[in-house]
């Protein structure tokens, strides 16, 4: 039988653990810090379901006192790990969600192993730097049924607070590979590589997307790198009205992925 770890209370903002959590919550982890802080019932419950107890469960005094129904299974399943109760004023500072329930998991994010072959639909992201864009891209890819996301160096950190909030649980529905050399990944692809670009590209709506592919989206300002465009099987663009700036990368991805989903749903063998 696993021993229950005593509950710890923290009342000072000078506590070294609290100062670390505050840096993690604010997206300032430090060069050698790999741990991340998950906030909120949804993310913490999803982590517990997929990976088991965290390194630490952190709650506010108010949450412990109120003991809402959803906190009880989290609290019970974390008996074998560190459980910390923060004074409410400390929890309010730590929280990045206004009026959200002050519950946090301290975790080591999973490191997905790069596959020898990529045979399913996936997302390849080249230097997408905005955390909101990255989180939305992951959420859209998961909703469209893609299996994995490969993030190049220069992308925002996938498990940073802003990406987690934008992703809304997508991190638990899609395999995420960070710091991937996309050129080196190319020989592993067993599906076509589809790059979005305005240069020498065909209309998205004329492309046969009935089978899986790897979608390549680029940096917000510079787009997909030239060396990656050269190895793409398809170049596609989204037709739009003249005189209007190109779509935001997350919006463009939503159009592309759900055009593919529309075509796939129309196949005779579609479920």
State the main characteristics.
5-stranded mixed β-sheet, alpha/beta, 12 strands, 60s Ribosomal Protein L30, Chain: A, 18% strand, 271 residues, 7-stranded parallel β-sheet, Alpha/beta knot
List the helices and strands in order: EHEHEHHEHEEHEHEHEEEHEH
* Largest sheet geometry: 7 strands, parallel
The rounded Rg comes to: 21 Å
The count of DSSP E runs of length 2 or more, i.e. the number of strands, is 12
Please name the CATH topology of the largest domain: Alpha/beta knot
Query: How many H/I helices?
Result: 10
**Fraction of residues in H or I helices:** 25-40%
> What is the CATH architecture term of the largest domain?
3-Layer(aba) Sandwich
Distance between the termini: 45 Å
Question: Reading side by side through the largest sheet, how are the strands ordered?
Answer: 8-7-6-11-9-12-10
In CATH terms, the superfamily of the largest domain is SPOUT methyltransferase, trefoil knot domain
Shape: elongated
Poorly predicted runs of 5 or more residues: none
Using the coordinates above, name the CATH class of the largest domain. Alpha Beta
Beta content comes to 15-25%
Structural class: alpha/beta
């Amino acid at each position: 039988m696993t021993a229950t770890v005593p509950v710890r209370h923290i009342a000072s903002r000078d506590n070294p653990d609290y100062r670390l959590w505050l840096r993690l919550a604010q997206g300032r982890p430090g060069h050698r810090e790999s741990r991340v802080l998950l906030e909120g019932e949804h993310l913490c419950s999803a982590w517990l379901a997929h990976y088991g107890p965290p390194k630490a469960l952190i709650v506010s005094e108010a949450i412990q006192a109120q003991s809402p129904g959803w906190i009880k299974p989290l609290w019970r399943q974390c008996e074998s790990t560190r459980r910390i109760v923060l004074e409410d004023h400390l929890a309010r500072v730590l929280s990045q969600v206004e009026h959200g329930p002050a519950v946090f998991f301290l975790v080591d994010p999973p490191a997905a192993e790069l596959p020898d072959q990529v045979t399913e639909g996936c997302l390849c992201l080249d230097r997408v730097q905005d955390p909101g864009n990255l989180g939305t891209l992951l959420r859209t890819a998961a909703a469209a049924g893609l299996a994995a996301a490969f993030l190049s160096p220069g992308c925002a950190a996938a498990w940073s607070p802003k990406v987690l909030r934008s992703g809304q649980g997508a991190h638990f529905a899609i395999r995420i590979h960070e710091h991937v050399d996309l050129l080196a990944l190319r020989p592993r692809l067993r599906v076509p590589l589809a790059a979005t670009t305005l240069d020498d590209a065909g209309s998205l709506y004329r492309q046969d997307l009935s089978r899986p592919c790897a979608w390549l989206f680029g940096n917000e300002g510079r787009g997909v790198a030239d060396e990656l465009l050269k190895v793409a099987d398809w170049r596609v663009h989204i037709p739009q009205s003249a005189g209007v700036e190109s779509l935001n990368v997350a919006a463009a991805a939503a159009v592309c992925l759900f055009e593919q989903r529309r075509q796939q749903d129309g196949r005779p063998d579609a479920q």
